[in-house]
Amino acid sequence: MEKIRAYFGQMTAMSEQDWAYFRLKLERVELPRKTLLLRAGQTENYLSFIEDGAVRYYMPGIEQELTFAFTFTNQFVSAYDSFLLRQPSVYHVETLTATTLWRLSYKDLQDVYRETAVGNLVGRLAAEDIFMKKSRRELSLLQETAEERYLALFSEQPHLLLQVPLKYIASYIGVTPQALSRIRRRIS
Predict the structure, then answer these.
(1) pLDDT by residue for the chain (188 residues), tens digit each?
(2) Which positions ≥6 away from 185 have C-beta within 8 Å?
(3) Does residue 184 sit in the same domain as residue 105?
(4) CB atoms < 10 A from the CB of 24, how many?
(5) 121 burial type by CB count under 10 A (0-12 exposed, 13-18 middle, 19+ buried)
(6) Same domain assignment for residues 187 and 94
(7) Cβ neighbours of residue 26 under 8 Å, at least 6 residues apart?
(8) Which CATH number goes with the domain that contains 66?
(9) Are 75 and 120 within one domain?
(10) Residue 174 belongs to what domain range?
(11) Do 21 and 60 lie in a common domain?
C-alpha cells in the first residue's frame, strides 16, 4: 500500500484524512500468472495499481491473439474505456507474472471523488497516465519501424525480457515471432 501512496505523493500532497479514506476503499489482490483480470464481453469494474507484476492487454483471435499493451509494477491497469463507459470490453486483460494489485471499484472511485479534497486530482492523474501510454503507443506505431519499437520498449522497460514471452513482444511491435528473431540477431 505504501507504493501507491508514494506514487501519488510524487504528484500531489494528500492529507492524512484523505489518505485514510482512500486507503479504506482499496482492496489488495494477489493473482497467479496467466489470470484473466477481464475477459472480452465483461465490463471493467476496477481501476488497479500494480504493486508488483506484469499484465498484458490483448485481442482474442481464432488463429492468433494480438497483444497491444503491457503494464508493469507501479503503473495503473484497467480496461479503462470499459471502466469509464460502463460497457463490455472487446479485449482481455491478463497477468503475465504473479501480480499484486491494489484495486478500487468504480463505485468506490466515485465516492473518493465526492468525499476527498484530492480525489478528482488523483483520478485525473491516473487517467492522464493511461492516456499518455496509449498516445505514445499509437505514435510509435505510426512513426517507428518494428526495430525502433523493439529497442524503445527495452529502453523503457529493461526487465521486459524476463517477464514477457517473445511471442507477445512480437505481436506488440507488430511483427511475427520469426521477424522478431531476425531483428534480435541484427541488433545483437
Answers:
(1) 788 888 877 877 888 898 889 899 999 999 999 999 999 999 999 999 999 999 999 998 877 889 999 888 888 899 999 999 999 999 999 999 999 999 999 999 999 999 988 888 878 887 888 888 889 889 988 999 999 998 888 888 777 777 888 899 999 888 988 999 999 898 87
(2) none
(3) no
(4) 10
(5) middle
(6) no
(7) 1, 4, 102, 103, 104
(8) 2.60.120.10
(9) yes
(10) 144-188
(11) yes
- 127/30 Cα distance (integer angstroms): 23
Question: 3 — phi, psi (to 5°)?
Answer: -65, -40
CA atoms within 13 A on the CB side of 162: 6
155 and 131 together in one domain:
no
Beta carbons within 8 Å of 135's beta carbon, 6+ residues apart: none
Full-model pTM: 0.86
